[in-house]
Write a structure and sequence with these properties.
This protein is an alpha/beta fold and 171 residues long. It is built from 5 helices and 10 strands, in the order ββαβαββααβαββββ.
């Protein structure tokens, strides 16, 4: 499905996080992430949700959390899915987005935003990966598997400066 894209940032060694947090602060990467995902669907795991400011869902997006545990503290732009419901959503997103379309633009996309288990599970559905490579080693303890990117043939550098490069990977 062309509407599903992955978006992630890694350090030089493909590190995603250290001690459960993103160890770098990049205004450029955050602006890029926001510009791509605003008014779209974002899919994440429960640890990624917990790592967001105050554990709140991202504003102006439909947030879907893949989890085995149901959460009764549901906000109106936050849905909790198990794996079966997520597959159903991927096959028929309209059924789940029609009541939440105030957060979505008419040409919305679905962005996989992490963490590691979610990337491992869902990268196979992505037509595009937006990869921000931070040009430093943060000695992360959570490492993204580069093997997940092998099926993406085209690498276009969309942006580059001294701090990072943003690469669009397509298959």
């Amino acid at each position: 499905m062309d509407k599903i894209e992955g978006i992630l940032a890694v350090d030089l060694n493909y590190g995603l996080a250290k001690n459960g947090q993103i160890p770098w602060k990049s205004k450029t990467d955050m602006q890029f992430f926001r510009q791509k995902t605003i008014n779209n669907v974002v899919i994440m795991g429960s640890k990624t949700l917990a790592s967001l400011p105050k554990g709140n869902p991202l504003k102006d997006r439909l947030n879907i959390v893949l989890t085995n545990k149901c959460n009764s503290n549901i906000k109106d732009n936050l849905l909790f899915f198990d794996e079966k419901t997520l597959v159903d959503f991927i096959n028929d997103p309209i059924k789940y987005t029609k009541d939440n379309d105030k957060y979505l633009n008419s040409e919305y996309k679905i962005y996989i935003i992490g963490g590691l288990q979610i990337y491992n599970l869902l990268c196979k559905f992505c037509s595009t990966i937006w990869l921000t490579k931070i040009k430093a080693n943060y000695e992360c303890d959570l490492i993204f598997s580069k093997e997940l990117l092998h099926r993406f043939a085209t690498n276009n550098i969309e942006y580059e400066d001294d701090e990072l490069e943003i690469i669009k990977l397509t298959n």
